[in-house]
Amino acid sequence: MTRRRGKILLMVSGDEAAAGEVLHQRGWRKAFTVAEMVHSWDLLVTNVERGYDGLVDEYTNDLYSRNWLHEAWVLLPAHVLETWSPHLMSLDNRFRRATDFDDGLSLSRYHRISSFDPDAMWWWRRRPRVLIGDLSLALLLAGEQTTQDTDSHTS
After folding, report:
1. Which of 29, 64, 119, 138 has its CA 20 to 30 A from that of 107?
2. 89: Cβ contacts below 8 Å, ≥ 6 apart
3. What residues are paired with 36 via a beta bridge?
4. What is the number of alpha carbons within 13 Å of residue 87 lying toward its C-beta?
5. Which residues lie below 8 Å from residue 61, measured CB to CB, with a gap of 6+?
6. What are the backbone angles phi and psi of residue 133, rounded to the nearest 5°?
């Protein structure tokens, strides 16, 4: 199967399509491809590096591209993983550099993340370093609330 994305012609293997179908049957809104979701993760990482200026709900929705990749990875054969893993690892490292660990305190004010494995789904426990726009306000307010909660428990 071939798909066009910009000027690049992507070949989607049957293995990738099958993984997308399995995840679609598990509740994802469509049968995404690895290429689509790596591209989505790439866009988010780039936006976080520059300063994500969308709403907190848009940000959490965008983080789900990494969830999809996490779920797909166990379904994909070795040759597909060998193709995509270096790029995904590079994106993950960029995301780590562009974010700070906060154990999910900021995002958990807006999105239920307690059911996510904290080690396997580490991206939910990090907040962007460059905060601008609506996301900035939401995460700063979440941080203030967290500080107030901590202060009230120690008083």
Report:
1. 29
2. none
3. none
4. 15
5. none
6. 60, -150
In which region does residue 27 sit, left (phi positive, over 0), alpha (psi from -120 to 50) or beta (all else)? Answer: left
Q: Return the SS3 of 8.
A: strand
pTM summary value: 0.82
Work out the pLDDT band at 13, boundaries 50, 70, 90: low
Neighbouring CB atoms inside 10 A of 144's CB total: 10
Rounded CA separation 83/24 (Å): 22
Token look-up 């700063």 returns 140
The band of 92, judged by pLDDT with boundaries at 50, 70 and 90, is very high
Counting runs of H as helices and runs of E as strands, what totals does the chain give? 5, 4
Tokens of 42: 């790439």
Q: Which two tokens stand for residue 34?
A: 């690895």
How far, in Å, CA of 151 to CA of 155, rounded? 6
Residue 92: phi, psi to the nearest 5? Answer: -60, -45
Q: What is the pLDDT of residues 105-116, one digit of tens each?
A: 889 989 888 878
Per-residue model confidence (pLDDT) at position 14: 72
Tokens of residue 5, six digits? 């994305």
